[in-house]
Design goal:
The complex is a heterodimer of chains A (113) and B (112).
Chain A (H helix, E strand, L loop, with lengths): L4 E3 L2 E4 L5 E6 L6 E8 L3 E9 L2 E5 L6 E5 L5 E5 L8 E8 L8 E2 L3 E5 L1
Parallel strand pairs in A: 2-11
Antiparallel strand pairs in A: 1-3, 3-8, 4-5, 4-9, 5-6, 7-8, 9-10, 9-11
Chain B lengths: L2 E3 L4 E5 L4 E3 L2 E3 L5 E7 L5 E7 L5 E3 L5 E5 L4 E6 L8 E8 L6 E2 L3 E6 L1
Classes of the chains: A mainly beta (113), B mainly beta (112).
Chain lengths: 113, 112
Amino acid sequence: KAGVTQTPRYLIKTRGQQVTLSCSPISGHRSVSWYQQTPGQGLQFLFEYFSETQRNKGNFPGRFSGRQFSNSRSEMNVSTLELGDSALYLCASSSWRVGETQYFGPGTRLLVL
Amino acid sequence: AQSVTQLGSHVSVSEGALVLLRCNYSSSVPPYLFWYVQYPNQGLQLLLKYTTGATLVKGINGFEAEFKKSETSFHLTKPSAHMSDAAEYFCAVSDAGNMLTFGGGTRLMVKP
């Protein structure tokens, strides 16, 4: 089975721009979660989507948004980028069951200049 | 709210020595517990997980962890470190949802 894929792998943007990151889950997985990883804050949960609906949300400003398509692929969008948004953004997929293992993609490294 | 504490942001061991990475959690409900490993420029790879049942959990690459409810701990061990074990290790907990709360991570260094 193919793993979780994320595109692009690397991205450079400037402050004020917006960015869209994409995640394709493992085939058959319907839950997709997004995490932000930074040296200062560590790994933080952004949101989870299941069956095209946001099921859980972390403590991030409204500039961070996401969506999920009918094929379970997910995108996250960050508007009005700030320097502090520079991070590794990780996507994870799992089955619908609570407590199931989340399988992570390689991440998208975003640098905001 | 859940929280996870990993004692020691950096741990250094000699090749062949015991690896012990500490994790304590707080959760108001019986948790699901995970250990993930991250190699440079990669995502997270699952080492092992505890859901219910046996408190000693065996994972990949010779790692294991013991769930101790009374101590709210889930420490990761490996009897003999290998150079390839050098990486960052994350303990995580989830409860009724699929949201993972991670510890701050422990960077394991293995000396030859």
